[in-house]
Amino acid sequence: MLALQGEHISLRALEPEDLDFLYHLENSIDIWEISGTTTPYSRYVLKKYLDHAHLDIYDVKQLRLCICDEGGTAVGLIDMFDFDPKNRRAGIGIVVLEAGNRNRGVGSESIRLLTEYAFSVLDLHQLYANVVEDNAGSIHLFKKLGFKEVGVKRDWIFSNGSYKDEILFQKLRS
Fold first, then answer.
1. What does the domain layout of the chain look like in residue ranges?
2. What are phi and psi of 49, to 5 degrees?
3. Which of 29, 40, 74, 86 is a plausible cystine mate for 21, CB 3.0–4.6 Å?
4. CB 19 within 8 A of CB 50
């Protein structure tokens, strides 16, 4: 798949050269709550994952793309998961690793590009996102991009000794 090009970022397929970035991102405890990770990943496991990252979304029901800045440096990942072509829907998730790259339009542009790809190329009818209640940045981001809050999953995430609600956002193709 060719890169999806935006004004300031691009989304591209994972490459073998992304191993160090993926290792750093997947083992960053700061994002484990949003990724559902509970144990570190080895380079070996991540290399095997990268070896299979080229598989078709229709086979593996997910698509993970690197978010790259204008210089081509990977700054985050954006995923489509639970891809359901029969019902024409998928989940969407995003992580921008370094705080210095957040609140600078990277997330907005990435989600816009992936949304356009999902609706126009994959012919999806809807995308959804799950956001933990205290992730104000993501809540603001998805609302700003036209995702509607459609539900709350009570006590959904157990983190640091307590439960948190998870908010379900949905965007329908107009």
1. 4-172
2. -60, -50
3. 74
4. yes
Which residues, 6 or more positions from 58, have their beta carbon under 8 angstroms from its beta carbon? 83, 85
> What is the pTM assigned to this prediction?
0.90
User: CATH says 4-172 is which class?
Assistant: alpha beta
- Residue environment code for 107-120, b if the CB has 16+ CB neighbours within 10 A, otherwise e: bbbbbbbbbebbbe
The greatest distance separating any two alpha carbons of the chain, rounded to the nearest whole angstrom, comes to 43
pLDDT digits (tens, 9 = 90+) for 86-118: 999 999 999 998 777 777 889 999 999 999 999
Beta strands across the sheet bearing 126-132:
4-5, 10-13, 63-68, 74-84, 89-96, 126-132, 162-172, 148-159
pLDDT digits (tens, 9 = 90+) for 119-149: 999 999 999 999 999 999 999 999 999 999 9
